[in-house]
Design brief:
CATH architecture: Orthogonal Bundle
Number of strands: 4
Shape: globular
Mean pLDDT: 86
Number of domains: 1
CATH topology: Jann2411-like fold
Number of helices: 6
Structural class: mainly alpha
Largest sheet: 2 strands, antiparallel
CATH class: Mainly Alpha
Helix content: 40-55%
Strand content: 5-15%
Oligomer: single chain
Low-confidence stretches: none
Amino acid sequence: MSYTATERFGVEPAPDGLALVQELLNTIGVGGPSHPDLLGEVECAQEWLNAALEQWTKATGSSPPHDIALTERDLPRLRALRDRLRGTLEHHTPSGPTPGPTGSLRLSLSSDGRIEARPEGRGVGWVASALLGEMYDAQRNGTWQRLKTCRYEKCAVAFFDRSRNNSGVWHDVRVCGNAVNLRASRARRRQQS
């Protein structure tokens, strides 16, 4: 199993549990039928969630609750969570007093003296708790600012910027970067003519 939503765009997953957040962001539909919205139908969303949680479990050593069975009612909530997280990365604030997603974490002391945070809740509520917990952890350890969305407006794939100075803006410089630069070059030539 792998992080299927992220890897379908040829992007390497973010480190540790942050990959789960990146994975949700990359469920978006981009480029027509070859990359559909993975949260569009229950069966597809369930396959995605099962695979993502399996990978997350391997990456973090955490354990998800048994059998999160998605229903048609869960899909709008998952898409809203994805959109809110995407807006956070793109520095967009929702218009009006829209409440943000919430979740619960249970803190416990492990036998080796470390504090462990475990998501709580049921179904999509548990998923929201896990995602928010991973975001919190990434913000505390300094990796959150490296999770970005591609600036090419036709793309918006989430990627983890591994550049030394955290200056990456495209998920794939050869594809998205070239398209943007070519368009800018043509516009400059038209202005000079």
